[in-house]
Specification:
There is one protein chain. This protein has 284 residues and is of the alpha+beta class. The chain has a domain of 193 residues: Cyclophilin (Beta Barrel). It contains 3 helices and 12 strands; from the N terminus they run αββαβββββββαβββ. The strands form 3 sheets. The chain has an 8-stranded antiparallel beta sheet with strand order 3-4-8-6-9-2-1-12. It has a two-stranded antiparallel ribbon with strand order 5-7. Strands 10-11 form a two-stranded antiparallel sheet. Strand 3 and strand 4 form a beta hairpin. The chain is rod-shaped and about 145 Å long.
Amino acid sequence: MSSRKARERQLAKLAARRAAERRKQRRQRIITIVVALALVIGALAFAGVALLGNTKKSASPTPTPSHTLPTTPPPTTAPPTTPAPTPSGVACGGTVPKAASVKKPTNLPAPSEVIDPKKTYVATMVTSCGTMQIQLTPSSAPNTVNSIVSLLQKHFFDGLTFHRIVAGFVVQGGDPVGDGTGGPGYRTVDTPAANTTYPIGTVAMAKGRSEAPGTSGSQFFIVLSDNPASLTQGGPGYAVIGHVTQGLDVLQKLGQLPVIAGPSGETSAPSQFVYIDSVSVKAA
C-alpha cells in the first residue's frame, strides 16, 4: 500500500514537471513570436518611413539649374585686377591721332534731349584699321542713343581706343580711362526687348555685371559673330544702339588683331593701340 502511494507521488511529480516544462516552452514560443512580430513591425515601419521620404522627394519639383558662366565673358565695365598692359605701336600701320592727347571728362551730367526719336542717325567711325559706318536706331534705345549722340557731338570718342578684342565674339571700346573701368559720369537705361538678338555687326552697350539689363555708360561693343550665346544667357542684357552698315571687313580686321593678357587676366588686350581716330554723326 505504501509502495503504491509512493509511485503515485512520483507520477504526480513527473506530471507536474512535464506540465511546467510545457508551460515554459509555451512562454518561450510566445516570447519568440512577440520578438519576431516586433522585428517585423519595426522593419515595416522603417520601410514605410523610407518610402514616404522617397515619395516626398519625388514629389518635390526638380531644382532649376543655375546658369553656368559663359565660355566667353560678356562685355562688362568691371574693375581690373592688375595694371593694364602697355601696347606697343599702333595697329594696322596707323598713327596716333591728335585727339588721343586730349583728356576726356568722366563726370559729365546726363544730357538733355538732343535727338529726334523718330529719326535715324548715321555715325562714321574712323579707326586705325579703316572706317565703319554705323546706323543708330533711337527706336530701340532712345535714352542710350540720345546719350551717344550727345557724346559724339562733344567729340568724346575721338582719340579713345578699342581696349578689348575677343576673336569671334566682340571688339569693345569707348572707355575714357582705357582699361574697361571708365565712363562719362552718368548712366542711362533702355531695357532690351525679350526678343532682342545680336547678329554680326550689332553695336550695343557694355554694362557692369550687377547692373540692370540695358544699363549704359559710354563703353560699347560690336559683335563679330551671329548671336553669341553669352549675350542672351538669362535674357538679353545689353542695349542695342545700332548696326554696322558699311565696313564689316574693317570690323573683321579688328577682330583678328593679336592680343595679350589684359588687366582682368583675360587674353583680350590688343598688343598694339587700336584708336578711334574720330566719329562724326548726322541725321539720316
